[in-house]
Structures are given as C-alpha cells and as structure tokens.
Amino acid sequence: MVIIGRVLGAHGVRGEIRILPLTDFPERFMDMDRIDIFRPAGKRIASLEVEEIRTHEGKGVLLIASKEIADRDAAQALEGGLVMVLQSQRASLPEGSYWIDDIIGLSVVLGETGETIGVVEDLLRTGEHDIYSVRTPDGKLKMLPAVKEVILRMAPDEGVIEVSLPEGLWD
C-alpha cells in the first residue's frame, strides 16, 4: 500500500472530510469512487463511498462527502488517517521516472567496474534534482546527486543503479 493523502479533519457541518493530497497526481482523487483510510500503523479505519469531491480553492486540500460520514463528529474521528491505495493503483509515470520506494534499497555500482559502492537508503527532494543517501559498505552515509553526469543507468528491475563518481565527489 502507498500513501496518497492525509485526513486533516472535518469541514463544515455536513460531515465532509478535508484531505491533503500527498501525491504528485492529486487529480487522481477526482476519479475515485471509494476512499480507504488507515491509521499510521496500517489498520483500516474506514472505507468510504464517495458522493462528492471538490477542491477547497486556495487551501490545497480536497473536500470529500460520503454517506458513511453522518456528521462533523464522524468526520473529525478520521483526522490523522492516511488515504492509501494498492501499489498497482498508482498513477502511471513517464518513461525514465521512478517511484521513491522503487529506488530505496537499490545497490549502487560503479559503471566502469561493476563494484558495489553502497545501497540507497533515502531520497531527498531538493527541487532542482534529487539526492540519494547511500550507505557505503564501511557504514558511512554519502550523498549522490541524481543528475545525468552521475547516474548512468537506473535498473530497479535488476536492483541496481549504475553510477560514475566525479573526482572528489566522495572525498
């Protein structure tokens, strides 16, 4: 399961919930006829049939009405819940783009020699380009910019990222 939104609480007296989209594709909510809400520990707390979804202009949130939410108190009880979907229900990505969870855990190997120099432990989004946190075999954490001069080949299906380390990058 992957997280695509967080319930912020109730909206108005009708029993609507406010959802903050946590996806690069918030428009996907507009086609959903059911929303599953989970506690952070993973237990499903609600499966709501969607009656209406609308955007709350200027707030960056969605307002969702459902028959299963009888009133404001019922909506407020869902606050903090996570909207999740199966991995197979994620939006399609353009060629050459990857989900963060597809990248974390990949072995980082030197393209020239095939030597494993670490494993991707985390991904930092900086705006200009992503930065991979790589745990080296000796336990050090090194940063690797996700730019074409460094990343030679992404192969999540093979479990590897081939790289070229510019001189001085990890010194």
Chain-wise SSE layout:
Blueprint: E1 2-11, E2 16-21, E3 34-38, E4 44-56, E5 61-66, H1 72-76, E6 82-85, H2 100-103, E7 107-110, E8 116-125, E9 130-135, E10 141-145, E11 151-155, E12 160-163
Parallel strand pairs: 7-12
Antiparallel strand pairs: 1-2, 1-6, 2-5, 3-4, 3-6, 4-5, 7-8, 8-9, 9-10, 11-12
Q: What attributes does this structure have?
A:
six-stranded antiparallel barrel, 2 domains, elongated, Elongation Factor Tu (Ef-tu), domain 3, 171 residues, 5% helix, mainly beta, SH3 type barrels
Structure commentary:
The protein has 171 residues and is mainly beta. 5% of the residues lie in helices and 46% in strands. It is built from two helices and twelve strands. Strand 4 and strand 5 (61-66) form a beta hairpin. The longest helix is centred in the middle third of the chain and has 5 residues, at 72-76. The protein is elongated and about 60 Å long. The mean pLDDT is 90.
